[in-house]
What does this fold into?
Amino acid sequence: MSELDRFDRQLLALVQQDAALTAEQLAERVSLSPSAIQRRLKKLREQGVIQRHIAVLDAARIGRPTTFIASLQVQSERPELMAGLRAWLEAEAAVQQAFYVTGEADFVLVVTAPDAAGYEALMARLLAANPNVRRYTTQVAMGVLKRGLSLPVPPG
It folds into this structure.
């Protein structure tokens, strides 16, 4: 973070809120020229600071209104078994987020599904493809208070 100046930090905060802002719009807010904005954004992408641009969708409007939080326990942490599970989780579109954690669970997942039956079908596929998963527990989100991936960008 030390190599990011205040302009980079301002840009990062702004594009996290709305990645569709044009260079001209960003230039007005950051007090740089549009070409300077474009150069900085290109550099931030090349350095991997900006990893990708996404659209945030309304889950209910696309038929996936239910969010589940699943905690997985594995039987063995053998590298080849863990690699297979990680690859499966990364490839599964319904798994929105997956965290390798400490504590009783080994992984915590945020999963979207059309309903409980859809979630159960997903978990049945997960267990069939990953026999190393010992058990899982589930919490159903009753409502979403906040959803996002924005990171706080400390000022320079």
Remarks:
- The chain has two domains: 6-46, 60-140.
